[in-house]
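Colleagues,

Please find the record for the two-part complex below.
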Amino acid sequence: MSDGEISRRKLLLGGAMVGAAVVTGAAVHDGELGMPSQTIKGALPWREGAADAPPIATGTDYRFFTAAEQAFIEPAIERLIPPDDTGPSAMQSNVHVFLDRQLAGPYGRGDHFFLGGPWPKGTPEQGYQSRFSPAQLYRAAIPAVESYAKSQHDGKSFRELAAPDQDAVLKALESGEAKLEAADGKGFFAMLLQNTLEGYFSDPIYGGNKDMAAWKMIGFPGAHYDYREWVGRHGERVPYPPVSIQGRPGWSES
Amino acid sequence: MATQLPPVDAVMVGFGWTGAILGQQLCDAGLNVVALERGVWRDTPTDFATTFAQDELRYMWRHHLFQNVAYDTLTIRNNVNQDALPMRRLGSFLLGTGVGGAGVHWNAQIWRFLESDLKAYSHNLKRYGKAAVSAYDMTVQDYPVSWDEIEPYYDAFDKLCGTSGKAGNLSGKIQEGGNRFEGPRSAEYPNPPMAMPYGPTLFAKAAIEKGYQAFPHPSGNVSRPYTNPLGAQLGQCTYCGFCEKFGCGNYSKATAQTTILPYLLMKPNFTLRTESEVLKVETTADGKRATGVTYVNSAGEEFFQPAEIVVLSAYVLQNVRLMLLSKIGKPYDPKSGAGLVGKNYAYQTMGSVNVFFEEKIMNPFIGAGALATVVDEFNGDNFDHSGLGFIGGGYIAQMHTGGRPIEMIYTPPGTPAWGADWKKAAARNYLRAVNLSCHGSVMAHRGNYLDLDPTYRDSFGRPMLRMTFDFTDNELKMSRHLVDKAAEIGLAMEGVSTVKKNYRTGSWSVLPYQTTHNTGGTIMGDNPTNSVVNKYSQSWDVPNLFVTGAGAFPQNAGYNPTGTVAALTYLAADGIKSQYLKKAGPLVVA
């Protein structure tokens, strides 16, 4: 391993640890081409302080969504996972923050997508066939959904609609019945629903799943590491409160 | 102009499971070996430490350990009448990359094929007649390897991994608690079975009441601390539920990293170069001998690595593509049926049954990649197929791989995908549902194959691989049969409220995730007219070229492939060591 590589890893991880790396996507991204080639011989390479730790999202402000986009995203995800006695809603879980950080980062830019052409329309079996990265798809689809909503509901924007009308718009996207001008509405809905579930149930380090309330709702203990004593305790509830990769509130007390 | 490097005895292209196994075997035989891996170096403490390994978003949904399709993907279509389009995002299968390959993020389900699987053509022909093995344009053929030949190598892999399980057939004697359908084993598993959570326990009970056997899934997540024959140590699995799609931070899952690399990388005659993408296998002018490989490092510098032996030890899809790009062998043509490289691409037919309980708490998050109890009555030819209209089969298992909530919340039939009713059902059923996996075979069919795409190119400007694949009625009928049988067992589980059958229907689709068990394309056989390689994974056309991996499978069985992939690699190593090194040339004369 060359010294050049060590210093690069340290530099990148240093960035990730202070949290500044989230939006710029500077976290170490293994599996990518572009790191220096290594020749490994006669030893197992290992370096102190080089762990490929995940990037941590910070803040709850908007960095990706414009005001007009916020006006759609907030009510839309609140219909996908609404507030009620069962558990937190998408907004209560900061799913909007999660979406914002994801779209501002590597995922939004199409990391781990192949976006090269040509781009003919495919069969449903061929899956995602857009030339848009996720961020581009959100950017293109949201105004198109707003136009569709206005055309169906007396010129009202999505936010102004009553909940059943909002649901009708979302269902028309889901089924493909709503034909949008500049984007694949069905594909956009599938991505929005998937990303919303990700924000609701992923580790809180990514900005959503506030207070791990969604994990508490279903009974998932989170990033817990050892269940050996519970494997054979059939039918008993595991009493551990959820834990994040960053720990949990109780850990800092005592 | 490529820089010429000093020649070596063997160069390996790709450094996952088969590269590590063959590297260890050849280095122990004294050969000077270089492995070229296009991905990065990866190890447990750095890349998947327990402090951050349990991260569903990063690894499963953001593909952190998977092949990045931005640089290299393939094109896909269901049949020759369609235009193939790029797989723009991984879905149905999750390709690996980097040191350890897909073996880093596997579940460690370690199976042996049935004796009848190895003779899929002649066995089914004899029992069911010609129509059974030629319907649906089937191009099924036998493996050129007998059970007795392959068994010692299955055993070697079990000992390498510390496989945890219970034998069902020890040297011909049926054993209580194991799989009585398996071929005779020379030895018991190195470690006892994993401890079973509630779901697999209730499933086994229901299966036994229905008159089936039920046995613990053979597991490469080890049930107790284990030191393998190379001196590598594995720790007891903690059932954290993050195996499949994740790296194991606990040294509990058998991978190249945990079982071979600590030994192999210390050998003075072994060299690993990472971020080194092989562009082509070079051959002599007559095409009868490989002279080495040309590769590019991440700085864009090109090298020629001369070698006496060249091994394609990358993933199936990459091996096939390198054969085609290097113009070795004749590409398969589905219209004429001529040519062999790319022929008999196969996959896995996955169905499932979700089982919902009235009140019982199943704790799905207590998981491990191979934590399950299994019913094998409907696999291979373990049952009479007369009148069923298909051959092949699969196992049914109550898999407890984990309860990762973005992927693994099951809701009862009729539940919407979002909204208040979805949330209520998710909250209610997360702890009270389990999944029965129906893991079925795919036979070889004339229209399923791999070749080079005429339109799309990778980041090096080389044609992408093109996959043409669909399920036929043979697979869909087989899978339906498995799902129906699984649902019967599910409904007999104590405390059940309802089940949801998830049949495999329609054409193969890039979504959802099914399994990363791609097979065929460099198939093995008993002579050069029916296969690309012989039983030692040696190319018929270029005898100093070996091609390892599941590409060798003439068709896929109803089991996970890695056990057989590893066994065939050990067989190849033995062929090279015991015969080829004494007299270089074809190891099988046909």
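The radius of gyration of chain B is 23 Å.

Comments are welcome before we finalize the supplementary table.
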